[in-house]
Amino acid sequence: MNSLATHLQDCIRLEGPMPISRYMAEALGHPEWGYYISRDPLGRAGDFITAPEVSQMFGELIGLWCADRWQAMGAPDPFILAELGPGRGTLMADALRAGASVPGFVQAAQVHLVETSPVLRASQRAALPQDVTSCEITWHDNIADLPALPGLTIANEFFDALPIRQFQRAEDGWHERMVGLQDDALCLVLDPAVVPAVPTELMAQDAELGDIVEVSSARTGAMTELAQHIVQNSGGALVIDYGHGRSAVGDTLQAMRGHKFVAVLDDPGQADLTSHVDFQALAEAAGSAGARAYGPVGQGAFLTQLGINQRAQMLQQTATVEQAAAIASALLRLTDQDQMGQLFKVMAVTTETTNEGQTPPGFLESE
Ligand code: SAH
Q: Which domains does the chain have, with CATH numbers?
């Protein structure tokens, strides 16, 4: 059995069942055995592939989005270009390369990366060599550590990795789903106590017996910090993730290993553990902090409005036949409704004032 599973079992024997949020936090972030702490999980040889790893077009268009917003902010110099959970650094490298076409943008940027994994910090350093980016790069553990400067922040598949709690409706009320032990194996159990306070609006509404709701103070807390940074210093953020636009009931906790779904309690620390992002909850957190949220819109619609079809055609003009086919298939993967185009969504967060009457690119109503 793996060391993290043994550690979690010992904790449960000593303290009783733990909330799913603690299980998720330990499985992903345990200082020694946590999934993200000990490996680079991305790419074909890893467990999952993200949009920036599918094609350079993704990071390039996001870089141009940031450059456009920077100009709309009055081209502050310096400003911070931040990314939360930058993975291999691919998105930021592509964004800076494309952003360099806008005079002054890269020169004014200070790159700040919020990343807890030492392995991925090393990959990010390698993807962003000083001589190529000509930007200063600083790493942080927390959003709250970002310096007080105007900023633009990107978060692709960051929020889905932050821990959630689950509650299930029973005859006598809502109970928290916990990770417990049965015959020395990890299993999901219901906390016998009825939750005294309703942690989400959704629970107050009529729910069917057995319905599950998910709440995440880690996610709303991260969004609150991000929105506060934007309100206090001006700027904006782009959040891309898979999830739902409106809060809804359902168990969306999932584990992925080797590009396949696996059981969430099998081999903790050896599989990616995520759940769908509740964009309504994020938008409400941004609103409560005084910022304004746009969207979410489907990733396909967002990238199409930003010109991904034209960018693909441009790249294909100088490509070999094989490369052109790979570009076409990446385009489809990123934008098709049955692939990443609809399940993945994009939300922008901005200050209430700077963007009045000025909807960010990608969020315009289609005619
Ligand atoms: N954005 C990248 C990687 C997504 S995977 C891409 O699109 O390819 C999730 C990323 O978030 C990883 O870099 C992981 O190490 C980081 N991460 C997970 N939990 C974190 C936390 N609590 N604080 C900071 N970074 C975190």
A: 37-163+216-250+273-307+340-355 (3.40.50.150)
